[in-house]
Amino acid sequence: MEDLVSLLNTLEPGIVIFDKDYKIRHINRIILLLFSNFTSSQIINGSLMDLHGRETAEKITHMLELLDTSKRQIPFSIKILSRDNRYKYLFIKLISLLSKNLEESLFCALLYDITPHISDKTMHLLKIPIGVKNEIKLIDLEDVVFIEADNVYSRVHTASGNFFSGLSLGMLYDRLPRKYFFRIHRSYIINLTRINKVLKEGGAIYVSLQGIDEKLPVSRGKSKEFLKILGLK
Known about the structure:
2 domains, Beta-Lactamase, 5-stranded antiparallel β-sheet, single chain, alpha+beta, elongated
């Protein structure tokens, strides 16, 4: 597991300052590069939410609510589509800004493009950003036992514990190498190298994984392909 702090120190962040109505007040030039699908006039004085799809906009709203409650920096990660139809993975820190009378009237978002550090040129993930306390760390794929859907986000299970990821299960599966990972169910992705046993109980199929007590179900729609991959059919 790699600490993201040392990585971020080498990256120049995009900076967005916006108000409570999500109107963008100021940006730096990095933002124009990150959101190259938009013109500068669309970004400056536009709405922060207009830069994102519905799912990401809802996530930002949720994180701003957390920021208002906790009164501290809120880190999370999102995915955006660039002009060349390739995805970028951004690590974001949200910060409240105080006015002269110490009221919170503006917000600052620091955006770091961590795409080159978590994926290869074919856009396969090499590491998964996960939440640990108030930080985000990067976890190596070989350490992953399985990944579980957690509402619109996901939870990464390893031998040492489970961790929150701001990326959805579908988003992760699109970028994980199929040689090692398989989605056995709408709620689960497993690391094929971590399989202990395949269990058949009645007409259902379950999988037992290394270091995990619970057995995971293989959905009927995935069972034939799953057994074929393992050479059992």
